[in-house]
Write a structure and sequence with these properties.
By secondary structure, the chain is α+β, with helices and mostly antiparallel strands. It is built from twelve helices and six strands. This is Transcriptional regulator, XRE family.
Length: 252
């Protein structure tokens, strides 16, 4: 798949019109249509910007953008103890062009779900920095219990956390934020999964100063903040996006 086809496919998958994508990257709508038609080749910088907002950065280092998460969380809750860094402000500027946020970065009325989805697009759950996959020998709740017994800090997210906020589908992918991965491995007796192996897994993601903020205890387990869980479900796999919709009240 060449770049033009890749951009067109990803734009449609992200539910964006050519005009919206153009606004996000600050070019004329005709530029996007000409790029997708193959009649114009974008500069590397423009191609990188397009792919960044579509959640597929060019090159091997296509990791999740933590600034998008911070920008989304701050837009929804300006009282969070987070700095509006240059990267955060860059996301606000992009989102302001499609009226997701106002000039001050706060979410526009009625745009909460779209904002969380856009942040998730740039920060897929499987691409978080420092994340480690393990063999699925325990459920997320069992892991949470083990970490509690060891006195370790953590926060459930993904489908397990979604089910705690609003009971729904079963657990598909246990994901936990943890303060110390090495200590969590020891406490929960986890075994690393071969990176070439596909299928079920348990994933630990280190605290990053954003995703673990405002976590709360529900039914005996520590859970990431509701906005973070919705964002992570949108950025997850399979039916996790449906769970995000359920939490937003858009379905069920």
């Amino acid at each position: 798949m060449d770049l033009a086809e890749r951009i067109s496919t990803l734009r449609r998958a992200n539910g964006l019109s050519a005009r919206q994508l153009a606004a996000l990257v600050d070019v004329a709508p005709t530029t996007v249509t000409r790029i997708e038609a193959g009649s114009v080749s974008p500069s590397f910088d423009l191609a990188q910007e397009i792919m960044r907002v579509l959640g597929e950065p060019i090159g091997f280092t296509g990791g999740a953008d933590p600034d998008a998460i911070a920008a989304g969380r701050l837009s929804l809750d300006p009282t969070l103890q987070l700095e509006a860094t240059e990267g955060v402000r860059a996301w606000w500027e992009r989102w302001a062009r499609i009226r997701l946020v106002g000039d001050d970065g706060t979410v526009a009325p009625g745009q909460r779900e779209n904002l969380l989805f856009r942040a998730a697009t740039a920060a897929r759950l499987s691409r978080r920095a420092g994340s480690v996959d393990f063999l699925p020998t325990s459920s997320a709740r069992d892991l949470a219990n083990a970490l509690d017994r060891a006195g370790l800090e953590y926060a459930l997210t993904g489908d397990t956390a979604a089910n705690l906020y609003s009971p729904g589908a079963g657990e598909v992918w246990p994901v936990l934020y943890v303060a110390d991965i090495a200590s969590a491995i020891q406490a929960a007796h986890l075994e690393r999964r071969d990176p070439l192996r596909f299928g079920a897994r348990v994933t630990l993601i280190p605290f990053d100063g954003v995703c673990e903020l405002r976590r709360e205890r529900i039914d005996g387990a520590m859970v990431a903040a509701l906005d973070q869980v919705i964002l992570d479900c949108f950025g997850g796999t399979g039916r996790m996006a449906e769970q995000a919709d359920l939490l937003l009240g858009r379905a069920g």
